[in-house]
């Protein structure tokens, strides 16, 4: 027995099989989130009841908003004979109960494994309901939970939405923005920037109101807000699409589809976090509308440069462990390098295969910089690394809290989910404004640590 | 305001108690209607919530990542020792595993995790696709049990194979395999198991303390602050005391059949029911009258401190209307009584998994005009909250935003809460929470309470 367990220990060390405390969520969650950002749309999961309920609970705990997700509610018969009947009945009931303009249907591991021909079923259903007035548009994204992670489901839903709704029209002067999975506050900020540039625009998805809205005087079956279907239809006529996300490939993305199908140029950028990446975004906008940025944003940039100067000494040489979706990690790493903080570990549960290369493009020689990059990892891996690396800061979503508590290294919460703090939906990450907010939080975290550890407890710093 | 209708196929799951109402024949215990946006989860969820608090067991979810990710550290079930239950383990099946089968991955995962964490037992939850891809998890469990020497228990909880209740049953089946495998020689003749108490915010400790004060030995709590060793000895107890009857009655029945242990149903919420839970246990041991004496002493002592405290809230809360939508129907009985004790009435009472007897009892105790719902959804709940002008909703995380959007107070009586609501001190916490939410000045800005849009 002793010999066998020693051998086993060796194998465990070299090949970890089980996932412990995943640093990713499943594909359908991302699709539901994206569908929530379309006006008058009800997300619908073709599978078991539990998927919809669990995902609702997970999203509600972050956004603190009602999130109704329908389900086709498989039972044993459905699994044996196929989901056609349940899917059609579910669509009928959702139509009756919610009167939606759009139903965003995402598959699950169950419906994908039994091989339901969802496209075919929807074709039939459309035919059967063609005469009904107010029949909703049906969008279908294939999102098997055994592939990729939530971020793939998010992009698959965006692309499927365009495939269902975008139509060729007379060219106009608008731009499309595909912002990636960012906060409602970020979405509002992006809209403000585009409006200030006087650029007609469509942001997809836009859950800035549906997932961070006001109180209701009466019941709303579907929360107000979201990208209008008419705007999505016109996206094929835009002068260009801006798409954030370093690892997001054209072949999987919304902007990529518009480019290949309608020739709308795709401008692909990393998430604009930090001065350099925000500059790239603003410069692109300046090029697209052939005018300089509004003074307001130049002011934001100036204040940020000034803040970098004011705060640099507190943080220079600090180290950080960084985790989350690959695109968020890449842009955050670039930002940290910019302010003199070294991300000693860049980790993600996602595994596009592109993370290291894309990160290298932004920050140069990773190994020379002492930066470790690991994709496809879980929190047990990240925790092990953190123990070895003993960074000054941990930066990522709230699921790193246990690790932060254990190691007594402060956690700076960004991205999604933030389940243990209030206001995650209102955090900014993007542009000069988002960077300013992040920078202030990082500096203050370091100062707070110093103040707490100080025997004197200075009141000026 | 627009009229919100009820979905075809759901009419019979709703009943309004009023004069001239049709005979009571509520439909329940059926799978949720497709597209109805049920508040229920699935079979897996049922199993997971029941077994989750067993703190020294390994809980491995066999399937793609979602099911494990969404149930990571999800409940407020606390442990006095090991905390293995707070970690999330998954075989994280990928496309190739789905094609070629996940048995090997399951085997390797188990061996590796048992080696790393030395659990006292392992529960293996099968998720939706496991049945479809034909993994023989029973065989893998047997093999690993043989190699590691710990109980390795399959939990057949494929999400689509029934409702949350079937998941409870699968969990009870797994527990039943552990019961009866431990030594019972030194167990007192005055002993019980506490079933269906999940130690949210330490509630099982409160209850246990009362019973121990009465001179009763608590052999195991299932599953709050649960230990494999205690479950194995559970057959040595003389009585099973079942709360959350929906989830644990099947285990109590099995134990009655196999070991001749009788069971009673109790609730620890509210003064009345909490007191009854102590008296009913005492009654079971008539040969030792000190137990009843002690129970009376505890009740009188606790009520003496609690009652004046509650009176302070009563004036403010009197006449306020509550809506209740929780997992199990049995809990609604206690909540109705508890709310009545501070002058509140209940206008809507519903549950995800109640049975006909539950709803019949609910109907009997409700006031005229109360709506009873089975397996409801956000649209219906909102409709009735508005129509009945509720001031408070009691529910869980998924119900909370419905209340807040509509300017209605809310009390979380579900598994995520961090404040104990059971026992006498729990009753105080409960009414305090209700008071703090109902009386909060923030509602003055809610459009339905006169605030601007």
Report on the structure:
The complex is a heterodimer of chains A (461) and B (453). By secondary structure, chain A is α/β, with parallel strands linked by helices. Chain A has 2 domains: 20-269, 3-Layer(aba) Sandwich (Rossmann fold), CATH 3.40.50.1980; 310-453, Rossmann fold (3-Layer(aba) Sandwich). Chain A has 18 helices and 14 strands. In chain A, the strands form 3 sheets. Chain A has a 5-stranded parallel beta sheet, sandwiched between helices. In chain A, helix 8 (150-165) packs parallel to helix 11 (254-262), helix 13 (295-315) runs parallel beside helix 18 and helix 14 (326-338) packs parallel to helix 15. The longest helix of chain A is centred in the last third of the chain and has 23 residues, at 431-453. The radius of gyration of chain A is 23 Å and the shape is globular. Chain B is an alpha/beta fold. Chain B folds into 3 domains: 43-178, Rossmann fold (3-Layer(aba) Sandwich); 191-298, Nitrogenase molybdenum iron protein domain (Rossmann fold), CATH 3.40.50; 307-449, Nitrogenase molybdenum iron protein domain (Rossmann fold, 3-Layer(aba) Sandwich). Chain B has 17 helices and 14 strands. In chain B, strand 11, helix 14 (356-365) and strand 12 (371-374) form a beta-alpha-beta unit. In chain B, helix 4 (103-117) runs parallel beside helix 6 (137-148) and helix 11 runs antiparallel to helix 12 (289-317). Chain B is globular. Strand 1 (19-20) of chain A pairs antiparallel with strand 3 (89-90) of chain B.
- Helix share, percent of chain A: 40-55%
In CATH, the architecture of the largest domain in chain B is 3-Layer(aba) Sandwich
Proportion in β-strands of chain B: 5-15%
The proportion of strand residues of chain A reads 5-15%
CATH evolutionary superfamily of the largest domain in chain B: Nitrogenase molybdenum iron protein domain
Principal-axis shape of chain B equals: globular
* Helical stretch tally of chain A: 18
CATH class division of the largest domain in chain B: Alpha Beta
* SS content category of chain B: alpha/beta
Largest inter-chain contact set: A-B, 80 and 84 residues
> Which CATH architecture of the largest domain in chain A would you pick?
3-Layer(aba) Sandwich
Radius of gyration computed on alpha carbons of chain A: 23 Å
Shape label of chain A: globular
